[in-house]
Design brief:
Blueprint (H helix, E strand, L loop, with lengths): L1 H65 L8 H4 L11 E3 L11 E3 H16 L6 E3 L4 H13 L9 H4 L3 H8 L16 E4 L4 H5 L1 H13 L5 E2 L18 E4 H14 L13 H4 L2 H6 L8
Bound molecules: zinc ion (ZN).
Length: 291
């Protein structure tokens, strides 16, 4: 009987030990499985971040450097087909800085111009805006007046003296852009003080021009139509025309990509635009420092 009890106790305690051992094994197995799962999860996260990082950085490069989102513009904008008075990114220029009361500029351009204006004033130079944003309709009016003889060009009525359309366009293009191809469409460009070259060779004009050449770049402004000695093609030199480069170079880059000859139409003589390759020979033929 005693032997039986002893055997039973031993049996029970070994059974108990086996159960404990089994539980330990199961527990150990579960811990190992959990570690395996952790490893898999870590690897997945790592591979996810590996594959997403380059995508993110290339998108950032594309958005922030090559084509900034806040300066992306439509073909209509680039061609001046809008009303600056109704565009909230534009502002009316205070007559204090201008010769007229109906001039508009992009707000960013205006702010930069005012900084330049006061710096010039401090140095005894008076800057005055005599032309600012001109939309397609405005430019079409200038162009067609010259085209039809309503406005005399170099003492001539071109409608009478120049029957060849291509040659007539070339004469007007010395100083005036075709509608849809003017930098004045963009709200970044201004004409300052006087639109005659003779003014800038006189004492006052020379002082203004010398000051601009020495200081305008500090405020972001550049003279796109510099001396013809520095350019193959394009408009004659305009010492009065200055462009706010941080924006205008973005718009020029977009113009080059987006605007085609099919878009340049809707005015007298527009058929000459492609023949004269005005995008290459005028829009893009500017001071290399203004790119
Ligand atoms: Zn101009």
């Amino acid at each position: 009987m005693i032997t039986y009890n002893l055997e039973m106790k031993l049996f029970k305690s070994s059974k108990f030990l086996i159960i404990i051992l089994l539980m330990l094994m199961v527990g150990y197995y579960l811990i190992l499985k959990k570690d395996d799962y952790k490893d898999l999860k870590n690897k997945a996260v790592a591979s996810q971040s590996d594959s997403s990082s380059p995508k993110k950085s290339s998108a950032e490069t594309k958005n922030n450097i090559a084509f900034p989102l806040d300066t992306a513009k439509s073909i209509d904008f680039l061609m001046g087909k809008f009303n600056p008075a109704k565009d909230t990114s534009f502002t009316l220029v205070d007559p204090e800085y201008a010769s007229g009361v109906d001039f508009y500029l992009l707000k960013t351009t205006y702010k930069a111009f005012m900084q330049m204006f006061y710096a010039a004033q401090h140095d005894g130079v008076k800057l005055q805006i005599i032309s600012a944003t001109r939309n397609f309709t405005y430019q079409k009016n200038i162009w067609e007046q010259k085209w039809t003889g309503g406005r005399i060009v170099d003492g001539k009525n071109l409608a009478k003296t120049e029957p060849d359309h291509q040659k007539r366009a070339e004469i007007i293009l010395k100083y005036s852009s075709m509608p849809g191809t003017s930098r004045h469409h963009w709200g970044t460009d201004v004409d300052l003080n006087n639109m005659n070259d003779s003014y800038f060779t006189g004492a006052t004009g020379k002082k203004v021009y010398d000051w601009l050449c020495a200081n305008a770049a500090r405020y972001g402004f550049c003279q796109p139509f510099n001396s013809k000695k520095m350019r193959q093609n394009g408009y004659e030199e305009e010492k009065w025309h200055w462009s706010y480069l941080p924006l205008s170079k973005c718009f020029l880059e977009q113009y080059q990509r987006k605007v085609h000859y099919d878009d340049i139409k809707g005015f007298a003589g527009s058929e000459t635009a492609e023949k004269l390759d005005v995008i290459k020979n005028y829009v893009l033929s500017i001071n290399k420092d203004c790119y």
